[in-house]
Write a structure and sequence with these properties.
- Pfam families: SOCS_box.
- It is a single chain.
- The strands form five sheets. A four-stranded antiparallel beta sheet has the order 1-20-19-18. A four-stranded antiparallel beta sheet has the order 2-3-4-5, with helices on one face.
- Helices cover about 15% and strands about 30% of the residues.
- It is of the alpha+beta class.
- It starts with 15 loop residues before the first helix and ends in a 7-residue tail after the last helix.
- The radius of gyration is 21 Å and the shape is globular.
- It has eight helices and 20 strands.
Length: about 425
């Protein structure tokens, strides 16, 4: 099922109020995976996003992958700090956003005896969840990781010290839903193996578990329904390089495996770009894109755009549910993943993608209805989140546990 199939469903000339009314009307009758709305990127930014139930308006980013942005962090989307500082530290020469942000961390969050005396430098933001930030730090050609809690403005410590300096491209990390653990894929220093998964405690900064996956390009993501006890991992089973497995932590036990994720290729090594869960954890999005560099195509718009395929799998049994395919004028190798990744609505029941028609270079946003999974409780959560703005949810006269459920926090919180 291609995303380009419903170009006639454009509502780009609607005002925000008309979009909201149209969405409410269509949601009642539309089937899952139906196209609910289409507009230009400019209309999306100017009000259509909020009217359609989305808090995210940033669908494009000029940041460079592994230099300014990472798989789980976008310099344009996640405002960890205000990078437009006016103090003398930031104004003596022209700097990129990331350079300003890195200097802010080094001067204001990392203790002076580390940043000044021991010469620690911020090389990248490895991952980010809530107020917790994990930084890739380098010192004397050695890689280490630092944890910062922006909620209390405190540097929590350093972990994962390695005797070599890794390039950002070699690292991938994600913080668990309860912000107590961090899983990092990085090169192994042991002869005969290339990459390992390392599970660290962010509270003690100690290594909890590690494993060598059979394939170096394996990706992972935490199930948001659990504090950190279950993962979705691609190519985790030896001999199955086109698979996705649900894995238990810290034992690494495989719960179930889908041995055929991509219908077009036998291996995920060249085309797999990202792996994400839906907000409620009932679906997994496997994002595939045309391999190779397409920077010239992005600038000139004279060549074919990249092909993007989103395979949607069940978060409960890993079985394939649906596939959406579309085209984007971007480079999936060097550009920020925001340029081709889907975004989810506040209620989690809608998905938006940015795409290009082959006949024109205009960027369009399309909104699709996702199937409603789970029990009555989850359906009620969707209705409540569609009725109240996100900032009102914590103020509702409801028990703390129910407020946490409405905010998609793990079960035991």
């Amino acid at each position: 099922m291609g995303a380009e199939e419903s170009r006639s469903g454009s509502h780009g000339l609607m005002g925000a109020s008309a979009v909201a009314c149209n969405m409410k009307r269509q949601v009642q009758h539309a089937r899952p995976w139906s196209l609910l709305h289409q507009c230009s990127i400019d209309h999306w930014r100017s009000g259509h996003a909020g009217a359609a139930g989305f808090s995210e308006t940033t669908m494009t980013c000029s940041g460079l992958m592994n230099k300014e942005c990472s798989a789980t962090f976008c310099i344009s989307r996640q405002g960890i700090i205000n990078v437009n500082k006016s103090g003398p530290m930031f104004s003596f020469r022209r700097k990129s956003k990331f350079t300003k942000m890195a200097e802010h961390f080094e001067y204001n969050h990392i203790p002076a005896h580390l940043s000044s005396i021991q010469n620690f430098h911020v090389k990248s933001v490895l991952c980010y969840r809530g107020d917790i930030v994990v930084l890739h730090l380098v010192r004397s050609l050695m890689t280490q990781f630092g944890v910062i809690d922006l909620g209390i403005n405190k540097f929590m410590g350093i972990f994962g010290k390695k005797s070599v300096e890794f390039v950002n491209e070699a690292l991938r990390g994600e913080i668990s839903p309860d912000c107590t653990m961090c899983l990092i894929r990085m090169p192994s220093l042991t002869a005969g193996s290339l990459y390992h998964f390392y599970l660290f405690s962010l509270q003690t900064r100690e290594l909890m578990a590690e494993i060598e996956p059979p394939y170096n390009h394996a990706l992972f993501t935490f199930d948001p329904r659990f504090c950190g006890s279950q993962l979705a991992v691609t190519s985790f089973v030896r001999g199955e390089d086109n698979s996705l497995s649900l894995v238990r932590l810290p034992t690494w036990d495989v719960v179930t495996t889908n041995t055929r994720v991509d219908d077009l290729h036998s291996s995920l090594s060249l085309h797999l770009k990202e792996l994400r869960y839906s907000r409620d954890g009932h679906m997994i999005f496997v994002v595939m894109a045309t391999s190779g560099c397409h920077c010239k195509e992005k600038k000139a718009r004279r060549f074919q755009p990249i092909d993007v395929s989103i395979y949607i799998l069940s978060g409960d049994n890993a079985q394939t549910l649906h596939c959406i395919q579309y085209h984007r004028y971007t480079c999936a190798l060097h550009s920020c993943p925001v340029n081709y990744m889907p975004v989810l609505s506040v209620c989690g029941s809608r998905m938006a993608i940015l795409l290009n028609d082959l006949e024109t270079s205009i960027d369009h946003v399309q909104v699709y209805k996702l199937p409603t999974a789970g029990d009555l409780q989850n359906r009620c959560r969707i209705c409540i989140l569609q009725s109240f703005p996100p900032d009102i949810i914590p103020k509702l006269p409801l028990p703390t546990r129910l407020i946490s459920y409405l905010q998609f926090k793990p079960e035991c919180i």
